[in-house]
Task: inverse folding
């Protein structure tokens, strides 16, 4: 990413939150300068956004057509919680694809490890929720460490294929269920014995919503921290030119492995929260198609952009959930078969959208947004009060810092 | 002994199916550097179109099967050529985007097939001979295995002859070897791209119709399930190597059958392990070039 060199390499302070950080797109000089100028207002804005989102279960808002009902209703909170968890998962994939440039087709494996791992531990043992989650997370680290160490010995398409193969093996394991643990094609329901009452039942959906939001914020901050850390800079260097990193004495393998394990572990964490929210595990989360949908979200949002991944995932989840409703609506049912059949398949519409974005909107949503911002800036650089983040008052900050 | 023979021959038959999908994948990757996720959709479309054509004559007649195979191959080729012209060509040289477009196409097309033909498998009717078995060295082998082996061998022969003895084959072989040089010599490789897609699509469409005969059903998801193994075959054989794909299909399928029988249904795992092993020992695959 184009995080400026003079930003602290250590974790960002408490003011940072979703919305903070460098703008999307790579190698844009203008973006680097404005990133510093915009950092503080963005951090504050992000913090406010999280607070507003956190208050949603207490409010009665709705967006007709997008949300199924008012925001205090369990159905809406369930959908929004799913959005936040999917966004967190997309962020973990962003760490692979956007930061270190690894195209993985097996990311679902680590997510499924979280979902199924926690489900199995809760069902088979008497361990309470938090220690159980810790056990699963440790298992996730181990799994990702071993598989990452093997897969990363190859690069490019071969790496993608090895990760696909391992994930496929996991998928077969879950579906065939040789040890009678995962419930096969049926999946497995959440055993509520060890789960605190606050997370059980439809009435408590809003608690789960807050958990989902917290998971997203934590994932975002960790992603931000990784990108700003030395490892993150090394990862970006490996993405841009691996040979050069090796020549100057870096160790691309170690860097890639570290980021891979971190991303996979975060995915496992998101998986545990997903189990609570959906109160069950189904084999669909371990399929190659599931990884592909995460890839689709990240690309829709814009590869290399953190908030792009979040927006892409939220957009995808809402569309995926709501297009089904649209498909069943009377407006569609009345159409002739030529139109009705494609329109009643959400995946067809999403896939088509995805193809169009890849072909005509390079950089996805984040790329389009940054181009739009650039155009506005170029047109009116001296506008009173400035356009968005281009406030003149903050200019000296950027120029005063030696880079 | 007869069990072993049965497993070996059905394994080779399954390998024939894998090869029909993997040959196209391998050629496309070798020439264009694209991992084609939509290849399974060509197969599924070929299967549905072929069966629709066969139904017109009678699904359980030899004429119907022959017509189905031809229509399946033609449909697969047409779908692949249209994909190349419409989606791949505009993204010239942007490999990641090209792969992403095929991913999108795969997702969208499977959903479309589900919308048109329903999500559940449909049984097909086969000619009487294909439902029977033949005694071979003491083993009773389903006749579909022989059909698959025959078809795959024919396709291998045709593709090899095409690559060896035609001008376009020459261009394709040269393009796999060194595309920049071919372009520098003033040859338009883009026609070769479309051609490779069409050939791969034809093989996949043929494989789709044959798969319906072996599996005894047709479903919108059959392409995706075969595609995963075809990917594995392609990588093990060496991306871009046709003989590699042929050898690897047989090895993978036979191994899968043996492990499924002798090692308690672990065929899929063994195959994955084999892939990991091959990639670690020989990252370019059995017959791939080192640079790949």
Result:
């Amino acid at each position: 990413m184009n995080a400026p060199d003079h930003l602290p390499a250590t974790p960002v302070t408490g003011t940072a939150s979703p919305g903070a950080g460098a703008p999307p797109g790579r190698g844009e000089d203008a973006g680097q300068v404005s990133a510093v100028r915009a950092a503080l207002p963005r951090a504050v804005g992000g913090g406010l956004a999280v607070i507003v989102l956190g208050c949603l279960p207490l409010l009665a808002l709705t967006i007709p057509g997008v949300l199924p009902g008012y925001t205090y209703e369990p159905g809406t909170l369930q959908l929004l919680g799913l959005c936040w968890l999917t966004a967190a998962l997309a962020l973990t994939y962003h760490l692979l694809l956007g930061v270190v440039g690894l195209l993985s087709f097996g990311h679902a494996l680590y997510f499924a490890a979280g979902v199924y791992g926690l489900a199995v531990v809760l069902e088979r043992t008497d361990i309470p929720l938090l220690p159980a989650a810790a056990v699963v997370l440790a298992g996730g680290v181990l799994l990702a460490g071993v598989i990452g160490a093997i897969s990363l010995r190859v690069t490019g398409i071969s790496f993608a294929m090895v990760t696909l193969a391992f994930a496929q093996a996991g998928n077969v394991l879950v579906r065939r269920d040789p040890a009678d643990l995962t419930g096969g094609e049926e999946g497995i329901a959440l055993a509520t014995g060890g789960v605190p009452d606050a997370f059980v039942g439809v009435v408590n959906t809003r608690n789960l919503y807050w958990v989902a939001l917290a998971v997203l914020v934590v994932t975002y901050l960790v992603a931000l921290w990784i990108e700003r850390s030395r490892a993150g800079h090394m990862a970006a260097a490996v993405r841009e030119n691996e040979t050069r990193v090796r020549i100057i004495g870096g160790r691309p393998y170690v860097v890639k492995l570290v980021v891979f394990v971190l991303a996979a572990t975060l995915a496992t964490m998101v998986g545990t929260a997903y189990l609570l929210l959906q109160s069950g595990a189904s084999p669909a989360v371990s399929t190659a198609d599931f990884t592909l949908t995460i890839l689709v979200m990240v690309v829709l949002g814009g590869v290399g952009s953190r908030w792009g991944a979040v927006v892409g995932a939220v957009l995808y989840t809402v569309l995926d959930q709501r297009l089904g409703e649209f498909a069943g609506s009377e407006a569609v049912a009345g159409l002739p078969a030529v139109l009705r059949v494609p329109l009643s398949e959400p995946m067809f519409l999403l896939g088509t959208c995805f193809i169009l974005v890849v072909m005509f909107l390079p950089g996805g949503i984040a790329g389009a947004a940054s181009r739009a911002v650039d155009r506005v800036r170029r047109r009116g650089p001296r506008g009173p009060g400035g356009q968005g983040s281009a406030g003149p008052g903050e200019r000296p900050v950027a120029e005063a810092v030696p880079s | 002994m007869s069990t072993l023979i049965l497993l070996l021959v059905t394994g080779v038959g399954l390998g024939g199916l894998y090869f029909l999908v993997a040959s196209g994948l391998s050629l496309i990757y070798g020439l264009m550097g694209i991992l084609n996720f939509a290849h399974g959709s060509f197969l599924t479309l070929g299967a549905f179109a072929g069966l629709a054509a066969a139904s017109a004559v009678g699904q359980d007649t030899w004429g119907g099967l022959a017509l189905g195979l031809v229509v399946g191959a033609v449909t697969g080729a047409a779908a692949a050529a249209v994909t190349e012209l419409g989606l791949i060509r505009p993204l010239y040289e942007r490999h990641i985007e090209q792969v992403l477009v095929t991913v999108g196409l795969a997702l969208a097309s499977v959903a479309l097939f589900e919308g048109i033909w329903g999500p559940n498998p449909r049984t097909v009717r086969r000619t009487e001979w294909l439902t029977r078995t033949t005694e071979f060295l003491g083993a009773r082998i389903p006749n579909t295995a022989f059909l698959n082996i025959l078809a795959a061998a024919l396709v291998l022969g045709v593709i090899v002859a095409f690559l060896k003895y035609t001008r376009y084959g020459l261009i394709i072989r040269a393009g796999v070897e060194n595309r920049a040089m071919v372009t520098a010599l003033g040859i338009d490789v883009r026609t070769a791209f479309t051609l490779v897609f069409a050939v791969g699509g034809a093989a996949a469409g043929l494989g789709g119709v044959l798969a319906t005969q072996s599996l005894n059903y047709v479903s919108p998801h059959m392409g995706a399930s075969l595609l995963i193994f075809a990917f594995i075959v392609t990588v093990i054989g060496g991306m871009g190597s046709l003989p590699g794909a042929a050898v690897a299909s047989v090895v993978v399928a036979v191994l899968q059958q043996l492990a499924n029988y002798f090692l308690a249904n672990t065929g899929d795992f063994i195959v994955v392990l084999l892939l990991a092993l091959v990639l670690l020992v020989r990252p370019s695959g059995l017959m791939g070039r080192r640079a790949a």
